[in-house]
Amino acid sequence: MNRVQGVVKMHFKDKWLWFFLPCLILFSSFIVNLIIGYFITDAIYTGGISSFYLYMLVMGIISLAQSFPFALGFSVRRTDYFWGTVATVAGVGVIMAILMLLLSFVEQWTGSWGVDLHFFNLPYLNEGIAAELLWVNFSIIMNMFFLGFFISSIYRRFGKSGMFTFFILLMLLSTVSVYLITFNYWWGDIFRWLSSHTASELAFWALPFTVCYILLSYLNLRRATI
Question: Could you tell me the sign of the dihedral formed by the alpha carbons of 213, 101, 98, 49, in that order?
Fold first, then answer.
């Protein structure tokens, strides 16, 4: 446990990567949309918050590349590094999910910031009780980070050839899937199924994917070279 805590402390020493930069990206996007809102009379339903989620994907890639060789250089066990990283991401995910929940409340109380801007409090994503809203944000953060972490672990384990093979297979799988869905006219059924579930319910459906990313990343790192 002490070794896992040591990995958490190692990650949190880089406050710029884990806290300052994601907040900078999130609030920069918000301020830009807020300024636009002052010059537009219509309601604005922006997807600017997606920039934060995309950053979590990138951070999953970057954090492994930067911290894994460093940690092993100080004789940290791979297992301790991995679970320390999971704990770090979970902690950051909880903090950021709470922050975005509070900001969605502020957005409601201020009448969408006085300019009818819907940035943190979006239809569908922010429907439900506070616990459900926290879960949706936390789930997206964890899913995006560990997707990036998994991609980075492929490179760490198999190198450039492994990455090339992975993306070729991913492209082929995507192409075949889109073809089958289009050929069988399943798009309507898919969208109806999605619309019949709340964002909180879909977040639970995404949980198995997040778990797979975590487990596959662990397997890759167990035999990865520095």
Answer: positive
